[in-house]
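Hi V.,

You were right to ask for the full record rather than a summary. Here it is.
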Amino acid sequence: MSRGMQRAALLASVTLLAACGSDDMPIASETVAKGPVTLHVRAEGELRSSKPTPLNVPGKNWAQRQVVWMVPEGSLVKKGDVLARFVSPEGEQQLAQAMIDLQRNALARAAKESGLDSAQGRVEVDLSLVAVQLGIAQRYADADLSTVARNQVLDAIEDKEYLQVRQGTLQWQRDQSGVRGGAELAVLDAQRATFDMNAKTRRDDLEALELRAPNDGVLLLAANWSGDKPMVGANLRAGFEFGSLPDTSSMEVEIDLPQIEAQGVQAGDAVVLHPLGRPDQRIDSKLSWVASAAKVRSRESPVKFLSMRAPIPPDAIERYRLIPGQRFVASVVLLDAKDAIAVPNVAIEQRYDRHWVQVKQGNDYVAREVTLGVRGTARSQVLAGLQPGDQVRLSQVEVPAPGDDSDKDAGKDKEAADGAADDAEGKSA
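Predicted structure:
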C-alpha cells in the first residue's frame, strides 16, 4: 500500500471516531412516580431544662465580687450545697467608710446639741437679768414724783421701754434657737439614717458571699456577652447571672435551623432526635414551640437562624441518663406522606410566586406550571401539574459531555490524524 493510501485510510478512521464521539450526552431527567414521600431537614441542638432555676451572684446594688471557689460545671448538686464562694475587698472598704461616716455624724450631733444648750443658756441668763432690771424700772416708773427726783422717774420710764423691747427680742431668739436647732438636728438625724442604711447594705453584702443550690440539679454556668463563663479569680457584679440549676426531670432540645432551610417548619411537626454520636439512642418527639422570627446568632456571621424546641419524654431521660448541655442531632420531618409526588428542587424554575418544570413532549421539553406543597432542602412536594410517568428535566440548561467542545475536538481530531499519518509514513520508510 502506498503512502498516500495509508494516509487517506488513517484520516478516514480518525474522522469516523471523531464523528462517533461528537454525539450529544442525554439530558438528565427523572420520571415522575407516586409513592411514599418523606421530606426532612437536619440540624443540631442543645439539651436544656424546660424549667431552669436561674442563679445570680449574691448581693445587691451591683456590688463587686471575686470568685475564690466554685463547683465545676456539670456537677450534680443537692439542695443547700454551696456552689461558689466570693470575697469583696471593695465591700469591706465601703463598710469601713460607712462606719466612719456614722461616727462623724454622732460627733457632729453632739457638738450641735452642746452649742444649742449653750446658746439657750445664755439667752435664759439674759432674760433673767432683763426681768430683774425691768422690775426695778417698773417700780421707779410708778413712783410718786414728790418722793423721787423727776429725772430718775424719766430714766426709769425710758429703761422700762427699752427693757420690754429687749425682753421680747430675747424671747424671740430663744424660740428661734429652738426651731433652728431642731431643724439642724433633724438634718443630722436624716444623714445618720442614710449612713445606717448604707452600713446595713454593706453588712448584708459581706454576709452574702456564698451561693447555695435552691434545689437538686446539675450546675450549668452562664456565658457573658463575650462568651466567657465564671471561673476562680473572675470579678463579677452582684445580681448578674451566674448560671442555672436545671430540673433534669423536664428537659427539651433547643434547635437552630438556618432561615433558608426552615421554610414551612411549624409547631407540631415530628422530630427524630438522638445524642451526637449515638444514633442508636433514637427519641421521637414533636416541636412544641417555634420562634416567630429568625435572628443572628453571632457577630461573625450574618446568617439568621430560626429557633425551635422539642421536649424529651421523661422515660427517655431516665433510660439514656441524659444531662443538660448534651448536643443532639435533630431531623425535623416536614412531610411524611404515603401517596404523593415530589421532584428535585433543581428541576423547579421559579418566577415571582409561580413555579414551572420542563416536561418532555416528543423529542423536546416544554414548560409546565405546577403547584407546590411542602418544600424540602432537596425535593419539593407537587400538588398539581404533574402525573405519574411524566419525564421532568432536572437541569434548566443542556449539560454537554465532559470536555465536549466542537471546535476544540475538531482541532484535536485533525492533529491526531496528522500525527497518525506521519507515524505511518515513518514506519513505512
